[in-house]
Amino acid sequence: MLEINGLTVAYGEHLALRNFSLSMQEGEIVALVGESGSGKTTAIRSVLGLLPLGGAVTEGTISFEGQQLQGLLPREWKSLRGKKLSMIFQDSGAMLNPIRTIGSQFCEYIRTHSSLSKKEAGALSQEMLERMGLSDPESILGAYPFQLSGGQRQRVGIAMAMTFQPKLLLADEPTSALDVTTQAQIVRQMLELRDTYGTAILLVTHNLAVAAYMANRILVMRNGSTVEQGDRESLLRSQEPYTRQLLQAVPDLGGKRYV
Ligand SMILES: Nc1ncnc2c1ncn2[C@@H]1O[C@H](COP(=O)(O)OP(=O)(O)OP(=O)(O)O)[C@@H](O)[C@H]1O
């Protein structure tokens, strides 16, 4: 479904990603882990065609459902992003407009990507918030972003990203800004959504416990290169010093240790 081959990305002279390859199947969860600056965010931003200014793919190819993503026209991106391909960030609050209610932004998002009426969009946004385990969706829809907790805002972001049942969700540190209990709940809800919709998830995280709990496969990254990859068990047995170092730094997830 997603095929990345020999991707190299540079910011000026600096190579942020070197010869990166990844192949993902439908419904699969792959985690990119590694220290700060190892190129994780650069990898998923490349898939979304949203590298920061100054960043450029210098080599390699990315294809999604058989379609080459490099060189897509803006209108082609528009029909992919938000629908088949969506993204959530560390703090969904940052992408919400602070002076508009959640409901009006959610409805606008739905109507930008579909031909649903206002009423239908309102009903769909409420349904999605319920799916994310938000107990009082009506009051969330009437609230402004600052009136919500970090965990609630993050659930809103995930609900929005999942509205059109994307084939692939790109998740950049989706739980890092949250306390451990909320992290564990959100991780479980993301897994439920994957089971319901069959969405594949490419997850970027510092947290090897989150990666081990969620992912079918983990890629360990350092200085823009993939150091090794494997499932949870094989990484636990890894003799690679950098992976062992990451394992030793693993925090708890909701009071439990998963690695
Ligand atoms: N806009 C930019 N301009 C110049 N260099 C950048 C830019 N964004 C990232 N880089 C560099 O590219 C490299 C990879 O960064 P990237 O953000 O992909 O790493 P990361 O593994 O996601 O780190 P973090 O966990 O801190 O988000 C780093 O050396 C970083 O300094």
Quick recap of the structure?
With 259 residues, this protein is an alpha/beta fold.
Number of helices: 10
Mean pLDDT: 89
Number of strands: 10
Ranges with pLDDT <50 over ≥5 residues? Answer: none
What is the percentage of strand-forming residues? 25-35%
What sort of overall outline do the alpha carbons produce when their principal axes are compared?
Answer: globular
Largest sheet report: 6 strands, mixed
Strand order within the widest sheet?
6-7-8-3-9-10
Q: Output the structural class.
A: alpha/beta
State Rg: 18 Å
> Percent range for helical residues?
25-40%
- Listing every helix as H and every strand as E from the N terminus to the C terminus, the arrangement reads EEEHEEHEHHHHEHEHEEHH
| Bound chemical compounds | adenosine-5'-triphosphate
Terminus-to-terminus distance = 29 Å
Verbal overview:
The chain is α/β, with parallel strands linked by helices. The protein has a domain of 71 residues. 40% of the residues are buried. The chain is built from ten helices and ten strands. Helices cover 37% and strands 25% of the residues. It has a six-stranded mixed beta sheet with strand order 6-7-8-3-9-10, sandwiched between helices. Strands 2-1-4-5 form a four-stranded antiparallel beta sheet, covered by helices on one side. Bound molecules: adenosine-5'-triphosphate (ATP).
